[in-house]
Write a structure and sequence with these properties.
single chain, 345 residues, alpha+beta, Aminopeptidase, Elongation Factor Tu (Ef-tu), domain 3, 2 domains, eight-stranded mixed β-sheet, 8 helices, globular
Length: 345
């Protein structure tokens, strides 16, 4: 499958942190095309196993998170609009005027996020705050209270769009782009004669504190792990610690990332002629790699990142070629992974 096709399939289902039911089914179907077994753990992370057939083979875990940002109804105003709070780190300035869907028991309701008009804001201009916004669904208070419950999930109505060349836009390439890499890596690895088992993980609740990866990794007890997430892509006014799109996957180095595993991945990239960029992380990477590394008795962990413009906005922009490069790099490294002394410090 092409990366764009995989990403399009993963973008359509909803999966706000803690409510990942819909996306979970699609992930299980995609994993099932290449894995001999697929299961869901207690928190809802999807785990698929591609076995090499060797007894006591080392286990390589490849992981990306399945959850996305969203909103949640917190109250109903006297006018019938819906107050909300954010689930994950939305930038409030991207929200006013956005079309949304409120997911109720009786079905979807469409609405628009409204905010106080700038003409009526007292005092000096200020950035919008979530407390100043509400979702207008066109109902009065009585009808809104009849159809909507506090706690109902709200999602942004943006979807997968192809841009020029290999660029793509979608509402949650963070981290459905990473999941597309995992699926494509499984497809490539399934054609190889491996000496390790691959366990793929689509973790829940990363946006709320790296929770699903922590519990999944503790249960799997892999010999090594590769986490796939996103990093900042260069764009207007974003240059520091950002990477150009279309120039390859970003490999992180730092104390959170295992030096021999990372070096092995960089060597595999060179041997395979794959473009990579290097990021230096002095501490917490802000990704699932932070928790996977210390799960159980410890797991040697590496981090690959896909450059992404406009992270945590209504539309995010990435490059399908970078995702393909990441998948090919994972497959190339797993082909040579044998565990044991290969990762001894």
């Amino acid at each position: 499958m092409e990366i764009k096709e995989i990403l399009k399939r993963l973008d359509a289902p909803l999966g706000v942190s803690g409510r990942e039911d819909e996306i979970r089914a699609e992930i299980a179907a995609l994993f099932g095309e290449f894995c001999g077994s697929v299961r869901t753990d207690a928190l809802g992370s999807v785990i698929g196993a591609l076995r090499c057939g060797r007894e006591n083979a080392p286990v390589m875990m490849i992981e990306a998170h399945q959850d996305e940002l969203g909103l949640m109804v917190s109250g109903i105003t006297d006018e019938g609009s819906l107050r909300f709070l954010t689930v994950g780190g939305f930038d409030p300035k991207t929200l006013p005027g956005t079309e949304v869907t409120v997911h109720t028991e009786s079905g979807p309701l469409f609405g628009v996020i409204g905010a106080t008009p700038p003409h009526l804001v007292k005092g000096p201009p200020k950035g919008p705050r979530v407390d100043d916004m509400a979702v207008d669904v066109g109902f009065d208070k009585e009808k809104s209270e009849r159809l909507v419950r506090v706690g109902d999930i709200i999602t942004i109505n943006t979807g997968f769009t192809e841009l020029s060349g290999s660029a793509v836009a979608a509402r949650c390439i963070d981290d459905r782009g990473g999941l597309a890499v995992v699926v494509r890596a499984l497809e490539l690895a399934s054609r190889l004669k491996l000496e390790c088992d691959i366990v793929a993980v689509a973790a829940v609740q990363e946006e709320l504190g790296l929770r699903g990866a922590k519990t999944a990794a503790a249960g799997i007890r892999a010999d090594a792990a590769i986490v796939i997430d996103v990093c900042h892509g260069t764009s207007p006014n974003v240059g520091d610690n950002a990477f150009p799109l279309g120039k390859g996957v970003v490999v992180s180095v730092g104390p959170n990332l295992h030096p021999k595993l990372t070096r092995g991945i960089l060597d595999a990239a060179k041997e395979s002629g794959l473009d990579v960029q290097i990021d230096v992380d002095g501490g917490d990477t802000g990704t699932d790699a932070w928790e996977v590394q210390v799960a159980g008795t410890g797991i040697p962990t590496a981090l690959l990142s896909v450059p992404l413009r406009y992270m945590h906005a209504n539309y995010e922009v990435g490059d399908a070629n970078d995702m393909e490069t990441a998948a090919r790099l994972i497959a190339a490294y797993t082909l040579k992974f044998k565990g044991g002394d290969q990762l001894c410090c």
